[in-house]
Description:
Elements: E1 26-30, H1 43-48, E2 55-61, E3 64-75, E4 88-95, H2 112-126, E5 137-147, H3 152-167, E6 176-183, E7 186-189, H4 193-198, E8 201-207, E9 212-218, H5 224-270, H6 276-286
Parallel strand pairs: 4-5
Antiparallel strand pairs: 1-2, 2-3, 3-5, 6-7, 6-8, 8-9
Amino acid sequence: MSSRIEILNAGGYRSDGRTQYELRSMTIILGDSAKSLSENLDDSFSNLYPNAADGSAIVMHGLTEVSVRVFGPREAQIRREAIHDRAKINVQVVMLPFSGGTANRRRGRGDKRLLELAAAIESTFESVIQTGLYPRSQIDIVVEIHQQDGGVLHTAINGVTLALTDAGVAMYDQVVAVSAGLHSTAVLLDLSHYEENDMPFLTVAVMPRSKKVTLLNMESRLHVTRFEHVFKVGCEAAEIIRTEMGNAIMARTHVLASSAMTGELGQTQRGGGNLIDESGMAYEMEE
Length: 287
């Protein structure tokens, strides 16, 4: 079924005003500011994660918004499920009732679509996280979909990468994901909801430094003669997203370093030193 909205007009612009290779605006919030907005979790689920998250992130690709919380590495809660030589990764995906979507209905924890997303995320990061450093432990990843307008999977993967980094979990490399589709003969990047429904597309997740592909997900048919070009363009676009994610991590690092510096200077000042000016400089750096 074709979409009523013109995907790509004669001038080379898409329905939202982007060109074919243009990505949607990306917003990243890391750390303490990335608090969960979920209010629909049942008591049994909330009891599994009573403590504050060790790492958190909110990622927005256009109108698609996903928050991620990471708990651990910590001791396995169920001992019989502990793995003696590595950590166990648990992924839970929750779709909030106001998130919208095609069905526009509430999806429970056992929903097939949510289980597929959780399995894809788990398989993506099993080979990326250095689980051997955390034997007999578990790492819990909670993904909450606040709003969806296409690209939910790659937004979630980018959010998990950032939340794991914020939690200090050791990884071989970052994972960067993006979606790419084929409209007639034109490759489009970072697809919206309407574009995903109108064309064959794939989601690719790569490790930028090693150039290894950790995920290639296709839910529609794409001709083999076109696949290589779509895949290559997607991998090139991942480098752009990697830069944005790196800038967010760097900014978060500077804030933490400035906060630590301010605390140390404050302690020295209370001990009799006169470091008011230097403390002020550190505060200005933080802003």
